[in-house]
Amino acid sequence: MRKRLIGIVTSDKRDKTIRVEIERRYRHPVYGKIVRGRTICQVHDERNEARENDIVEIIESRPRSKTKRWDLVRIVKRGSTQGRPRSSAEAIDEPGTASDQAETEATASSVEGPAEASEPATP
To answer: Which of 20, 27, 15 is nearest to 5 (CA)?
Structure first.
């Protein structure tokens, strides 16, 4: 019987190949502490259907390349795309936006307030 494992897709950038991370927990043989370990597998995805952060089931198969020895069985759960980094275009703030202007006004009013209070009173 071939092994079946469940893991999370950490990369789907290559054609027909995904990178799956399988997390496991075990007791350390000497210290007895519960330790988290991980195994990273290169998995064959014939239809390019799995995406990053998906939870997938994989099965052992014949060697397809130097490192690829697993096949995708099914997608257990679709992952969220919230963990993905934003593109560089979204990361750049455009000057003059409403939030930028409000922040500038708030900074200016907080600077003026303490400056007036610290001036000595004239008789």
So the answer is: 20
For the domain spanning 4-77, the CATH number is 2.40.50.140
pTM of the model: 0.63
Q: Inform me whether the pLDDT recorded for 79 exceeds 90.
A: no
The single residue listed with the structure tokens 């927990």 is: 25
The pair of structure tokens assigned to 105 is: 């006004």
4-11 and 55-60 strand pairing: antiparallel
Task: In the chain, count H helices and then E strands.
Answer: 2, 5
Count of other CB atoms within 10 angstroms of residue 122 = 4
Q: Where are the beta strands (DSSP E) in 1-123?
A: 4-11, 17-27, 34-44, 55-60, 68-77
Q: Count of CB atoms within 10 A of residue 51's CB?
A: 16
| Residue 96 backbone zone (phi > 0: left; psi -120 to 50: alpha; other: beta) | left
Beta strands at 68-77 and 34-44: parallel, antiparallel or unpaired = parallel
pLDDT confidence bin for 81, thresholds 50/70/90: confident
